[in-house]
Amino acid sequence: MAVYIVENTLKPLSLVNTMSSTTNVQNLLTNVFRPRYTYNTLTSNYQTKLEIANVDTVSANTVTAYAANIGDASGNVYVGVGAGNDRSMLTASSNTTDTFLGTGAGSATCNVKNSVFLGYRAGASVSNASNSISIGANTPNGGNSNIYIGCATGIATGSNNIFLGPGITNGGVSVSNTLLVGSGTKTAIIGDLTNNRIGINMSTMSDPSTNIVFDVNGYSRISGPSSNGGLGININPGVYTLDVNGNMRVSDGWGSLILTHDANSNASLTFSNVRSANCNATIQSTTGFTSSSNTIRITNGSSSTIGVLKKGTIIVHATDSIASSSNTVGATIICSEITVPTMYIVARYNGGTAQLLFPPGGNIGLSNQGTTTTYSYSITYFPSP
To answer: Lower Cβ count inside 10 Å, N or C end of the chain?
Structure first.
């Protein structure tokens, strides 16, 4: 039964009754339009207000209201033509505390709880879902605790997913605990939310057993003000463009360079060939190699150990505190074994001699046969397998 309001003016009941002579219509109108008197404390008088109740459908071009209390007994809010389920299906659908906004949003849903679907047919025909959000036209959303934002973005099953971008569907394959950011089949960012891992420009994440938490496929650039950005690995970047705290390996697929240390905390730099045993690993420098220097004071007629012999090529250099050319000793030896026969490399020193010693015990020694003095020395190792 329709009720008409002519020229936006409510006619007296006696005039409206002229529309029909039936008693049922008169009784219906009195149940629809209910006058209510409210005392106004500012003007100290009663004001008449009108309550409208028992109306199933209202057709209007514009509705202006202070507040609209919308919702069913189960806390669901359906706004939009065909949004949610028909009133006759509210109990059977078992939906609770949902918000569906848009034409057909959440239509034909069943057992959906604590979810928000916004957009044309967002979350339509979803069943057995909870704590999820879908924003965008035709966004499916099955499972629990999903966030899908983008037109036609989402999958019908799976839980704890976050998809951002239009048409992100993972090819229709069900996944859980996954982050996808992109457009359609082009995924810019992929995330493994179970193991807190992120991949860029990758279709799938690497195996979790690799312990890789950040994986980039392609060129990368790190910059800052004036293009002086630094990268720190296991350490905050300092004055270096690249600062690594820990073991380091660099490989071009043919050879590798490994910087690490041994059990005695001695630093080790290794070059190796990884492609063929018939190829050699080489290191080149146009200006030579420089080792950091240490100092030691040796009395007249004494000697001290300054290093150990290792298999490979060893360069040893020592200079006394006077630092004249005649007070320098040096040697390059090749060790095929850990120990070598006793060797003496002699340099003159003020009428005496300074000697580098390579005794069978496997140590490198420095002997002073002149005035007690302080020596600066360096040892550079090029070990071989």
So the answer is: C
